[in-house]
Amino acid sequence: MPAPPIDTDLERAAAILKQGGVVAIPTETVYGLAADALNAEAVRRVFAIKGRPADHPVIVHIAGADQLEHWARDIPEAARVLAAHFWPGPLTLVLPRRPEVPDSVTGGQDSVGLRVPAHPLTLELLRRGGFGLAAPSANRFGRVSPTTPAHVAEELDGEVDMILDGGPCPVGVESTIVSLLAPEPVLLRPGGVPLAELEAALGRPIRIARKAAEPDTAEVRAPGTLAAHYAPRTPLCLAEAAALWSRAERLARKGLHIAVLARAPEREGHGDLVLSPMPSDATAYARLLYARLRELDGLGLDLILVEKVPDAAAWLAVADRLKRAAAHCPEALRDEEAP
Ligand code: TXA
Ligand code: MG
Fold first, then answer.
1. In terms of CATH architecture, what is 6-208?
2. Are 228 and 327 in contact (CB under 8 A)?
3. Which of 132, 162, 172, 258 could form a disulfide with 287 if both were Cys (CB 3.0 to 4.6 A apart)?
4. In angstroms, what is the span from residue 175 Cα to ligand 2's centroid?
5. Rounded to whole angstroms, how far apart are CA atoms 240 and 10?
6. Domains of the chain: which residue ranges?
7. Of the bound ligands, which one is closest to the alpha carbon of residue 27?
8. What pLDDT sits at residue 132?
9. Residue-wise pLDDT tens digits, 91-148
């Protein structure tokens, strides 16, 4: 198949989507792989392209909070409050679904995830098209999400009808997901909106869902909560800051080709290591993370060693993605060896 056109033509994107096509769309978080959410056949094609299991729900992107009623029922006050505060923006609300929402969108569950993305191009597309767009991140299942049109093209080469070019994504990690299915709100996935801001808006604490690392404890079928997700192909391991360099050098001496992703690689003389400096600010770090992992993945290295990030609220989303990316860290490289 020829490479899909990357362009900024909204009308073309809208026409393709109305005909049941699949278009990669920019959002402020990551690129999405979009189809008309009421067209079950088109949504199934999205799943097929991603290689994603059919029983996993996808987020429906809508033009504004005034469309909540078209997709959800029994909408609690908390949803109105959060929508008013954070939409358009990187927040997904899980609400009871209306019966019209296809099972292919909800994974057969009685709920639907909704968000109004803050990217001007996609907002305009939603307004003009008059549709809701079911869109998971535009990567193959389990891989790192794309944050530029070029990432989408290299990931899904030839399989999408168009890539709508909205430039690089300013947030860089996926939306925060909050379930409002029960009286007590639950954080299903940390993301672009910090937990503290949600709690401040609601005036109450939000419980963090039990991790779905063990399938038995899964509260929902949410692929973003699987233990191994958001992973580069190169093995990735985490290291405490204090042990980072000694560990990297020890492994390099054994002949491994290693990249070190650290917030302040101020040291010199790491001749054999690929140094990959990252910002010390959580927001800037998040913006860069997926692009950096993709870059390093292309170098054919043996290992990406990542300095652990601070155990602080502002780093929740980044820490979550790094932990999942490190789920396949080889056993032999996992723990500190004795000095
Ligand atoms: O920032 C984002 O959220 C990006 C952009 C494209 O909007 N989308 C994204 O989609 O990350 P995806 O499919 O890669 O992850 C969406 C997450 C999944 O973990 C999915 O299970 C969860 O949202 N989700 C969607 N609908 C849900 C529902 N009804 N109940 C529970 N989780 C739901
Ligand atoms: Mg995803």
1. Alpha-Beta Complex (3.90)
2. yes
3. 172
4. 10
5. 46
6. 6-208, 236-334
7. 1
8. 98
9. 999 999 999 999 999 999 999 999 999 999 999 999 999 999 999 999 998 889 999 9
